[in-house]
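Late entry, written up from scratch paper. The run itself happened at the end of the previous shift, but nothing got recorded in the book at the time, so transcribing now.
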Amino acid sequence: MANPIAISAYIADLLDSLSDMVGKLVSSLTMLMVIATCIVVVLRYVFNIGATALQDSVMYMHAAVFLLGAAYTLNHGGQVRVDVFYRNFTLRQKAWVDAVGSILFLLPLCSLILLTSIGYVEQSWAVKEGARDPNGLPYVYLLKSMLPMAAGLLALQALAETCHALATLMSPEHKEQGNA
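Output as recorded:
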């Protein structure tokens, strides 16, 4: 019979790896955003040239970093948390909070975002929605596609957090210690 703690940890590690891979990929966009923003500023204020498509690309990269990087942030504990009580909790108590929080709050939120964004994205893809400005990027439908992708990645990371918590709760050393 398979060890449920090992299975839970294995699943969590796989999902963590996915979050890490996507997070590191989109984090590389931050330097490109800085460079593109500098170019936009120089073009506008030195040469009096507008660069709408380049400005749009900065917005697209910014959206990708925040939306697709959310799961990475959760994986590495960078989310905003009310830490008044949590920091003093035992590992078991923290595991309970993490599991319940993921199951009762984060997964339903991800489901809501996913369900409400699908139609929105489908409509955008149906017309291959582009920028309203004639010089803007014609890929608004790709930008909008990041909404359900973000919800899906965040839901997977919520499952990973739940698996980590379950592994902690099922671990014999944490059951015996009670306050490890």
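Residues 91-126 form the longest helix (36 residues).
(Scratch paper discarded after transcription.)
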